[in-house]
Amino acid sequence: MIQIKAVDLYHPEQSKDNAFYVDHFQKQGKDIGRFLEQMGRKSRYIIDNDHENGLTMGIEASKRVLQKAGVNGQDIDMIVFSTQVPETTFPSNALFLHDAIGAPSHAMVMDSNANCAGMTLAVEQAVRTMQANPAIGRALIVGSDYNSLIANPAEAITYANYGDAAAAVLLEATEGETGFIDAHYFTDSVNRDKIMYPEKGLSHAVRGQSDSAYIQWLPFDGHIAMPPTYELIETLLTRNNLTSRDIKAFCLSQFSLGNIVKIQDHFQLQDDQIVYVGDRFGYTGTSSPFIALHEGVESGRIQRGDHVLFWTIGAGYQLAAMLFTY
User: Fold this and answer.
1) What is the mean pLDDT of the chain?
2) What separation in angstroms does the CA of 310 have from each of 40, 148, 165, 184?
3) Has this prediction a pTM greater than 0.70?
4) Band of pLDDT at residue 215, cut at 50, 70 and 90
5) Are residues 194 and 165 in the same domain?
6) 171 and 240 share a domain?
7) Is 244 within 8 Å of 270 (Cβ atoms)?
8) How many distinct structural domains can be found in the chain?
9) Among the three residues 145, 177, 209, which one is the final residue of a domain in this structure?
10) Are residues 111 and 134 both part of a single domain?
């Protein structure tokens, strides 16, 4: 089995509460109170200095998870760095991480980007690689997005919604009975041009032919993702002979509290089956389901042997659901 050996996180020190964003948008003549309630925000951590970024956050989260697991960089056989705000496009962010933790020369390293679904996909793909290659005994998967860097100060959907944070997961091949169970996906590219950065592509941005400062977020019907989400989760549960009642914790995308409530209502979940951290962290993008996992483990709500279901959504759009026995 491929087990989640440990999970940890890093976030910057500064926390901004809703009052800051309400005041910011009131000066623009906008009332975002209802928006903040729908998204479930109270505070979020924001980088406010020149020395932190997505890469530094990922490195710190990685060092913490290695220490927690009682291993060091030399014990790592694979590194995947998931981000949609890379500090460099080449070399890969994973290469800097390799150096920072002192990983061995045989370690496989790569960056991965499936937008907000990225870390979930990276964990699943790393598991598949480990299952196929017994030489990979431990894999370090990092999700880190410096979201505030490219959030548009004129749009609440990014500026008042996003937070900065990183999560790191250590996967380990074991002889035990806990670990990865299954994963399932749904992709519909209908909204591929609604959330874009750079807004007209990298070639235009580099040539100075477009504004590349902020994410372009055009209006679209986000509700269309919910029916396939229900089917996705139902399929994953059914083919593994499980019901929603068998799942101890649902670690879902923290993009919107409204979406989480819809999933909870559809599957008639109890409150204690939902791990919600979006009120404290804001929306952290690729790492958000694993920040929820960290909260569940640290609070004692998730114990070894519990079934955990991850669900997330990536821009464009792609849905991913994954099952583990923690």
Assistant:
1) 97
2) 19, 24, 18, 10
3) yes
4) very high
5) no
6) no
7) no
8) 2
9) 177
10) yes
Q: How many CB atoms lie within 10 A of CB 251?
A: 30
What token pair was written down for 92? 């890969």
Q: Kindly report the CATH number assigned to the domain that includes residue 20.
A: 3.40.47.10
Please give the residue range of the domain that contains residue 117.
2-177
Domain identity same for 153 and 11: yes
Same domain, 217 and 280: yes
Read off the pLDDT of residues 171-202 as tens digits, 9 standing for 90 and up: 999 998 899 999 999 999 999 999 999 999 99
Question: Is 173 in the same domain as 189?
Answer: no
CB 155 within 8 A of CB 276: no
Reading the block at residue 99, the tokens are: 């150096």
Token reading at 129: 């690689």
How far apart CA 5 and CA 68 sit, in angstroms, is 9
Amino acid identity of residue 241, one-letter, is: N
d(CA 74, CA 80): 15
Same domain, yes or no, for 196 and 54? no
